[in-house]
Amino acid sequence: MTEATSPAPDGGHRVLKHPSISFEFFPPKTEEMERNLWDTIKRLAPLAPSFVSVTYGAGGSTRERTHSTIARILGETDLIPAAHLTCVGAACGEIDEIVGRYHEIGVRHIVALRGDPVGGIGTSYAAHPDGYRNSADLVAGIKRRHADVEVSVSAYPEKHPESRDFDADIDVLQAKVDAGATRAITQVFFDNDLYFRYLDRVRARGISIPIVPGIMPMHNFKQARNFVTRAGTTVPNWLAEKFEGLDDDADTRKLVAAAVAAGQVQKLAKHGVDTFHFYTMNRADLVFAICHLLGIRPRGAQKAA
Ligand code: FAD
After folding, report:
1. How far is the CA of 206 from the centre of ligand 1 (A)?
2. Continuous segment of H or E residues that includes residue 32
């Protein structure tokens, strides 16, 4: 984390801590998507994220693409990659092999997840008969074989849709921490109060690992709303109202999306949050602008006094 001085509202100077940031990408499917991802990575890399993560397709569908994206990030940039991995559709041996391959090429950070049921969100989850039973089991499996691998996990400010209640939800977080996880990244949320209430609950249980807010600028509101709602995130009416009438106006939608996400992170920062994880959707523009508003400048560039 870097520090800079900035003028305080009263005209004096105070020391501000620059937030620590990380970016999430998904593995590209086509050559065009690959070019787009690399343009995005090149634009965002100078913001010096503490790590960048690459998701793992539902049911392991992107196993090779996630690996090759991670390998290329390691080979062609100074960024520290984190590979997402789920328990779904694979025996423990296969998962161990994937982790082993990552370890061999120098990956030292895994985002360990249970994953969604094979039948999709809303259907019941059944572990692979020879697989890791759940996310905590996966975290333990990774740490047992590779103590030098940092493991991050998920957290749910609105609780996971399958959770009975917050207590049960936080029991699972506790089990992941006990197994060796040292950071949780939250599911996207739009109401900061939900995050702070969740944080209070987690801290009250004595869990002290960072609970990093996951921030999603909504490039395409309608599409994003469908996607996040299925994963259990509430989209408040005030947010929907901000995008009303903009279905055919992508330029204005983009400005509104940037303003909304920038407002959210600035309010979180004002309340002491100093670490953010951005769901980039493989696009740089909004995330770059939001980071700029957080005071983050590309490496080598000076912030105006
Ligand atoms: P866990 O943390 O293990 O469980 C989540 C909650 O579900 C628990 O709190 C628990 O209360 C409840 N729960 C779990 N199992 C049961 C059960 N059997 N019965 C009752 N309740 C249960 N998905 C992907 O496919 N690929 C990715 O790359 C990916 N990346 C993600 C990154 C982040 C930061 C987040 C927040 C989610 C990501 N997901 C990803 C989605 C995730 O796989 C799903 O939300 C999945 O349904 C739960 O996996 P988990 O590891 O979060 O579950």
Report:
1. 21
2. helix 31-44
CA-closest residue to ligand 1 atom 26 = 56
Rounded to whole angstroms, the Cα distance separating 224 from 257 reads 11
Active site residue 34: no
Q: Which of 3, 24, 64, 104 is catalytic?
A: 24
Rounded CA gap, 73 and 133, in Å? Answer: 30
pTM for this predicted structure:
0.94
- What tens digit of pLDDT does each residue of 222-231 get? 999 999 999 9
Q: Is the pLDDT of residue 267 over 70?
A: yes
Identify the band that residue 17 occupies on the pLDDT scale cut at 50, 70 and 90. Answer: low
What secondary structure letter does DSSP report for 58? G
Instruction: Tell me: pLDDT of 181 over 90.
Output: yes
Question: Which helix (DSSP H) or strand (DSSP E) does residue 207 occupy?
Answer: none
Rounded to the nearest 10 degrees, the angle between the axes of helix 31-44 and helix 285-293 is 10
Domains of the chain: 18-293 (3.20.20.220)
Q: What's the Rg (C-alpha) of the chain?
A: 19
- Whole-angstrom Cα distance, residue 161 to residue 228? 12
Best residue among 160, 166, 205 to mutate for probing ligand 1, ranked by most atoms within 8 Å of CB: 160
